[in-house]
């Protein structure tokens, strides 16, 4: 016996009848408007290749989504069972049907979470699934999703049009070459895909591979970074490049709301220590707090 997947339009609204009536009226007035997507982690390669395919249901919905696999991991599901590659190169589960089965067996963990709501919406509205995902239904639903993914019209560019997207902004490191964005523009495709400047890898002194990232920033900007002034110049040059490809925003993984304006001498000294590999534990959070203000200044000057 199958359990139907029912997703009424009022599922996100409170139970008060008067409030729900108003909410539904407001929802009806905007639900068909074009989508403006100012922030996302969508890989621009999806749109650079006209006939890009998503792969298996697992390739699309599980292994690339850290909200999915981190939740499962937090509840005791080994990442290896979900096909997540190990750093040491040891083998992990590679059978997508088995990974999907594991996912289905733990799908109840997502009940009431934003990820669970989004997954149900995706299954229902995008893939036309009309029964709940359970251990018993897992393989039949896998077949349905896989069949949809193989349709010739199920490509990122076609979906962009079907979803009525007006603009979609990706998230790109300051050291990204933006080759895919350039390819999208060169193709003359009508979709509006724009980069978003994410500088974490070069402004957080404790970021993994910070020194290598800085060397790449130097190379891409054409600026030899030897002091704080040339460092800021390199960042401004990269922002100019992003702006030329349509960027209108920055994105920061600010772990705390702390901001702090360093003096010119303090900023210079902290960067100099970092360049020598001699940063103190206090340098990284203070420098990041300072650079958040610097990025805000640059954004104001750029008109973002």
Describe this structure in words.
- There is one protein chain.
- The chain is mostly helical.
- It has 2 domains: 53-154, uronate isomerase, domain 2, chain A; 166-302, TIM Barrel (Alpha-Beta Barrel).
- Helix content is 49%, strand content 5%.
- It is built from 14 helices and 5 strands.
- The protein has helices at 17-30, 45-48, 57-61, 66-74, 96-105, 114-126, 138-149, 156-162, 179-187, 200-203, 210-221, 228-244, 264-275, 283-302, and strands at residues 35-37, 165-169, 172-173, 193-194, 197-198.
- The strands form 2 sheets. It has a 3-stranded parallel beta sheet with strand order 1-2-4.
- Helix 11 (210-221) packs across helix 12 (228-244).
- The longest helix is centred in the C-terminal third of the chain and has 20 residues, at 283-302.
- The radius of gyration is 23 Å and the shape is globular.
- The N and C termini lie far apart (54 Å).
- The mean pLDDT is 95.
In short:
This protein is mainly alpha-helical and 304 residues long. 49% of the residues lie in helices and 5% in strands.
Write the layout of secondary structure elements.
Elements: H1 17-30, E1 35-37, H2 45-48, H3 57-61, H4 66-74, H5 96-105, H6 114-126, H7 138-149, H8 156-162, E2 165-169, E3 172-173, H9 179-187, E4 193-194, E5 197-198, H10 200-203, H11 210-221, H12 228-244, H13 264-275, H14 283-302
Parallel strand pairs: 1-2, 2-4, 3-5
The structural domain count equals: 2
Terminal residue distance: 54 Å
Q: Helix content range of the residues, please?
A: 40-55%
Summing up helix and strand content along with how strands pair, one would put the structural category as mainly alpha
